[in-house]
Design goal:
The chain is of the alpha+beta class. The chain has a domain of about 80 residues. The chain is about 40% helix and about 15% strand. It contains four helices and five strands, in the order ββαββαβαα. Strands 1-2-5 form a three-stranded antiparallel beta sheet. Strands 3-4 form a two-stranded antiparallel sheet.
């Protein structure tokens, strides 16, 4: 009888490259750890009121998770100098560039969720 593979309990620090338009790319974490998810969630809270209500930080909603995944990118400035990924650099992108990043990272997240679900159930998904 075959022995069942042991379930990994810790996130592996794997990085995946996502291709963007114009030859650009993003390096993103394959999966966030519990701590990374909690830190991203915490960034979306502006304040906790005395009555227990949470006031959301509208600037960080959605953005905190996206930023948590990004490790590096290929973007350059007007002088063709590489721009390091930082929160400030992310804020200085054009809306179109940010939208492309958000779409790519959200698709990556959805693929990862599907893979983990399929691994738990033992099924596989096929695309047409």
């Amino acid at each position: 009888m075959a022995k069942k593979a042991k379930t990994l309990r810790f996130v592996q620090p794997d990085v995946v490259r996502l291709d963007l338009s114009d030859g650009d790319w993003l390096d993103v974490r394959r999966e966030l750890s519990t701590g990374e998810v909690r830190r991203a969630m915490a960034k979306t809270i502006k304040s906790l009121r005395p009555n227990g209500e949470i006031e959301p930080d509208l600037e960080m909603l959605g953005r905190a998770e996206i930023a948590s995944y990004i490790v590096d990118w290929s973007f350059v400035d007007a002088a063709d100098k590489r721009v390091q990924f930082t929160d400030a650099a992310l804020d200085n992108l054009t809306q179109d560039a940010y939208s492309e990043i958000e779409t790519a990272v959200r698709a990556h997240i959805a693929r990862g969720e599907d893979e983990r679900k399929n691994a738990r159930t033992g099924s596989s998904s096929t695309s047409v």
